Amino acid sequence: MVVLVANGLRQTFGIFLRPVVADLDISRQTFGLVIAIQALLFGFVQPVAGLIADRYGSVKVIVSGAFLNALGSNIYDIAGSYDLMWVVSAALGLAAVALHWPINDKPLDRFASQST
Q1: What's the whole-number average pLDDT of the chain?
Q2: Which end of the chain has fewer CB atoms within 10 angstroms, the N or the C?
Q3: What's the pLDDT tens digit per position in 1-21?
C-alpha cells in the first residue's frame, strides 16, 4: 500500500500539467524539467536510502518518507512560485525514495517469515 501511494503520486503529475503551468505562468518544458529532476533525484538517492534503512531500520525511513511526502504534497498545493516548486519537487523525490519497494521489502520479509 505504501509503494502504491508513493508511486501513484509520482505518476500523476501529467494530469496536473495544464493547471500548474497556467497557475505558475511557466512553460510545459519547465514543468517537465522539474519532474525530470525529481525522477533523477529519486534514482540517485536510492542507495543512500538503503544504507540509512539498514542502519536505522526500514520503519523509521518509511515513516520519515511518509511525513516528507505529506508535507511536500501540502506545500505543492500552495506553491505560488517556480522556485518553491523546485524545492517541493525535490522533497517529493526524496520521499518517494523512502517509500519505495526495496525499503519496504525487509519488513515484509520479516512479517512473511513469522507467519509461516
Answers
A1: 75
A2: C
A3: 555 555 665 666 677 778 878
The DSSP 8-state label assigned to residue 26 in this structure reads -
DSSP 8-state secondary structure symbol assigned to residue 13: T
Q: Which of 108, 104, 105, 100 is nearest to 43 (CA)?
A: 100
Query: Do 62 and 104 meet the contact criterion of CB atoms below 8 Å apart?
Result: yes
Q: Are 34 and 89 in contact (CB under 8 A)?
A: yes
C-alpha cell at 75: 506545500
Phi-psi label, residue 25: left if phi above 0, alpha if psi -120 to 50, beta otherwise = left
CA distance 24 to 109: 44
Q: Are 20 and 35 in contact (CB under 8 A)?
A: no
pLDDT in tens, 66-80: 888 888 778 877 767
- Please give the Cα distance from 98 to 53 (Å, whole number): 9
How many Cα neighbours within 13 Å face the side chain of 44? 8
What is this structure's pTM?
A: 0.67
